[in-house]
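TICKET: design request
STATUS: open
ATTACHED STRUCTURE:
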């Protein structure tokens, strides 16, 4: 009787311990940088895929939901606060980033136009409808992409290997992610990595605000779309019809402005001082510092 009574008790205890062991291991995996990065990427990525091309305000609602998912993942899985998406000062940060994005696109476009690469004519579409459509779509795209690549990927990789490795890896991934766009090729992927990946990554390391980077990204894409220039290979319905003349290295060809040499040089010229300022402000972290 004694043996019989003890055996089930011991077996049950072993099963409980095994379950607890598996649970604790799973918890450690989810709480690790790669764990919360992947968890957040799945959540934000699904929302982006479901809402990016939706009608009316759906992309904006998807962006708001993506921010909520990101906050939840960081609080529950990563066990950390989220100052990078704090609402206080968000408007000012977005406006500053937007100003940089506007100057970036307009100066690049003017340089190409002066060199004979672009010509513009009024498209004749409804002004308000075109502007509203561009704003809604680009809000959704800029918010979800920045959550994925800067808030999740860059910060997770930064904890593992430091800021320098993180910005290199996320820039490469950003370029590769655009290979599926119409007109994309190896050069356009390199161009996206150098200008968008580097510039947006440097902007985040400098300000540590997703809203600053979202503002830059949003105004960049929206200005291109309204000018009628293809945005990463996607030909938009803009306020103007753009004529493309000359070599693709100047104009970006069918892929659009991002594959031109002009914005690449502009992006590097902007990213370098941002990285210098980030370093001075303590925003460039080594592997040891990032882990803390």
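STATUS: resolved
RESOLUTION: sequence designed for all positions
ATTACHED SEQUENCE:
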């Amino acid at each position: 009787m004694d043996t019989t009574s003890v055996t089930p008790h011991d077996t049950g205890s072993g099963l409980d311990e095994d379950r607890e062991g598996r649970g604790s291991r799973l918890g450690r995996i989810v709480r690790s940088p790669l764990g919360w990065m992947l968890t957040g990427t799945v959540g934000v990525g699904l929302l982006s895929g479901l809402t990016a091309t939706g009608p009316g305000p759906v992309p904006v609602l998807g962006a708001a939901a993506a921010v909520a998912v990101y906050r939840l993942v960081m609080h529950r899985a990563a066990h950390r606060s989220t100052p990078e998406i704090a609402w206080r000062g968000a408007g000012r940060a977005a406006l500053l980033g937007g100003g940089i994005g506007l100057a970036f696109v307009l100066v690049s476009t003017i340089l190409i136009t002066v060199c004979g690469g672009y010509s513009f004519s009024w498209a004749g579409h409804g002004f308000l409808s075109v502007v509203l459509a561009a704003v809604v779509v680009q809000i959704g795209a800029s918010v979800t992409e920045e959550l994925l690549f800067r808030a999740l990927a860059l910060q997770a990789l930064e904890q593992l290997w430091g800021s320098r490795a993180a910005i290199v890896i996320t820039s490469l991934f950003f370029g590769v992610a655009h290979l599926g766009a119409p007109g994309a090729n190896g050069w356009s992927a390199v161009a996206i990595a150098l200008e968008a990946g580097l510039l947006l990554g440097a902007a985040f390391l400098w300000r540590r605000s997703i809203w600053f980077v979202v503002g830059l990204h949003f105004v960049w894409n929206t200005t291109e779309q309204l000018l009628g220039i293809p945005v990463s290979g996607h030909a938009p319905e803009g306020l103007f019809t753009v004529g493309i003349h000359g070599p693709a290295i100047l104009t970006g060809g069918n892929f659009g402005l991002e594959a031109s040499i002009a914005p690449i040089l502009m992006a590097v010229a902007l990213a370098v001082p941002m990285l210098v300022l980030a370093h001075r402000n303590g925003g460039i972290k080594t592997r040891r510092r990032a882990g803390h």
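CLOSING REMARK: Residues 87-291 form one domain. Residues 1-11 have pLDDT under 50 and may be disordered.
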